[in-house]
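Re: the request from the purification team.
They wanted to know what the chain is likely to look like in 3D before they choose a buffer screen. I agreed to run a prediction and write the result into the notebook, where they can find it.
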Amino acid sequence: MKSKSIIIIVLICILMNILTFKNVSASILLAEQFEKLSIYEGISNEYITSIFQDSKGYMWIGTADGLNRYDGKNVKTYNADVNRKDSLSSTYINAIEEDDRGNIWIGTNYGLDILINNTFEVIRLKDYTIENYSLGELEITDILKSNYEENIMWVGTSNGLIKINIETYEVEEFFYDKNDSDSLTNSYITCLKEDKYKRLWVGTKNGINILDENSKVIYTQTQIDNNKLFVHDIESDSFDYMWVSTKEGIIIYDINSTESKQILILSNEGLKTYNLNEDGMDKILDEKNKDIKIYNNNFIMSDSKDNIWISSSEGIKVYIKGTSKITEIKRDENNLNSISSNIITCFYEDNNGVIWVGTDRGINILNENRQFNSSMTSIGSDKAIYDKDIVSIVQHNEYVWIATKFDGVYI
């Protein structure tokens, strides 16, 4: 009788998990389910600046004081040492990327470094000259490996955009030139993103730029860019939209028509459609809309289910695509499993669909597969499961076998 009740409980848990997984939307998915990764687990600093998963599955975590490689259990830290040329250029990590050879590219606020695959030797590019050009001690703001051009790495800096061919070591540079209407709108690069048309979207301190597949600037001056918008971040979804996070709000482009007269803006009330000819960009972004804007939206990510994750001045806002509603995630001082801070510094989704959230107080990991760990804490009135990490459940004859991660098998 006991085994039947166990089976019923297990089936209910599994069914609830499946149904909620498909809905994706509500608070069960988002609330109170964060695992933590901080200095107590070996991370060099709690202020997280970037997160990246390489082709081997390692998680690379950039912080304000060093780079960390996390294998799910152990942390290895790389940092700067003024007395060693084989150390990083700076302790402050801005960006992480992997090239086609498995080398890890590290953008710091004091130069670009490459961690060589297998040997883990650190190469500081500021110590070398490539085609009569040196990266010097520039602040590296973003790095993007091209999905369409082999051996091409795009590097955004505080003074221009650089295209590096890692096979031939050829370097091409892009800057703002007041005498050239086809140059970038600003030399300070904030973010980089490619679209399906092989175009590179370049965010700057002064508007958006688009480079075609021949690296020609084809898009700079539009109604939006004329407003001198500071672009924080750019993200794409699977519906051919590019989400652009700016100081004045989140603007959504249709990548099939960048010159469209319609514009979408995301607010706390959801998506709103405007006509630039009728409303004008100044009117759209004026002070009358300040109460519904999403402020401090410095970081934005589209996950594998096309939900949009946005940093805000009050934690995380998640635009749920299926419901067109916005769900908030905030720090709850009374809940140990809530997010560790409302100050969000970056987002990342790994190959398993796990969401990693960087904050000023460490990393928060949201794994949907773990959300019902507390749904079944006992298998009968006389015996409890002390380890909630269930890794496998199987029925054999009249018994249910439950394998846990740390406390053995329960029958």
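For the purification team: The longest strand covers residues 390-396.
Please add any questions underneath this entry.
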